[in-house]
């Protein structure tokens, strides 16, 4: 009878029948050499201090960095992105660009031990200013053009200490161009700039601000970070950074902005980085701790989605753990 004949034309399930077949047709795979692990470096010695809102992540004193970086290298993680934490804050964030500041010391320590480690340094003032904003203040708001030379000085100090990549995250207009000129004028022509090009004023930075003690003491960052509903504007930001000389463009956060990431991938030929931020990490950890989701599967699914959307490079607090899972 006619009804008994199979009428299913497209049998997609053929390619899902076994793990071997699924592996053969899998479109996206994760590669730990494209992971970047954010690392919090703190003043003092002998310190490895857990961050409550980011289980598994610690603040490290400079003398404790080598062990941690060695572990990341063993896991195959491609790079580290350094964030400095200091108690000595002032209006102008001067510890950010001090040649003896926490980040130059951390860079020198890591490059001294592991010369081939790719070391990235975040460039911003918010961890160093007494008011917690990403630039210097004038008349109660962040002064773009007075901030640029300070970011440039910080980038130059980090590059002089040996950083391979500087990553301006302050969302000041013209920051990439100003930093490129400053680096070049110091002969630091080979230092890579990774622009936090499309960085949104996101609620998902909460745990990071606990970790780095960088919450603004008044107001918020909406006057300089991007408005979450906008994606055409993100393309303008990416294009500005590309024109100013950025070598790598970033979209941040990742998960709530996968559409932006995908558009970025299709419009630009520079490498695209995505920052899987602290709040995204904390959500998975918290749900897993409650037994509500499978941490390993959820983490790898999140990272795969970021890759599938178009990220070449993934900055993630899950870097070490995910790299180890992938190697099992
Ligand atoms: C510095 C900076 C922040 C993050 C990266 N660089 C904090 C912020 O903008 O408030 C957030 C990273 C994260 O949440 O994981 N400006």
Widest sheet, order of strands: 1-4-5-8-9-10-11-12
Helices and strands, in N-to-C order? HEEEHEHEEEHEHEHHEHEHHEH
Number of helical elements: 11
**Small ligands present:** ligand PBG
Report the span from N to C terminus.
51 Å
Q: Label the CATH architecture.
A: Alpha-Beta Barrel
CATH class identity = Alpha Beta
Tell me the domain tally. Answer: 1
Computed structural class: alpha/beta
Mean pLDDT reading = 97
Radius of gyration: 21 Å
What is the overall silhouette? globular
Instruction: Note poorly predicted spans.
Output: none
Q: How many individual β-strands?
A: 12
Question: Strand count, sense and closure of the main sheet?
Answer: 8 strands, parallel, barrel
Percent strand equals 15-25%
Please identify which CATH superfamily we are dealing with: Aldolase class I
Percent of residues in helices: 25-40%
The CATH topology: TIM Barrel
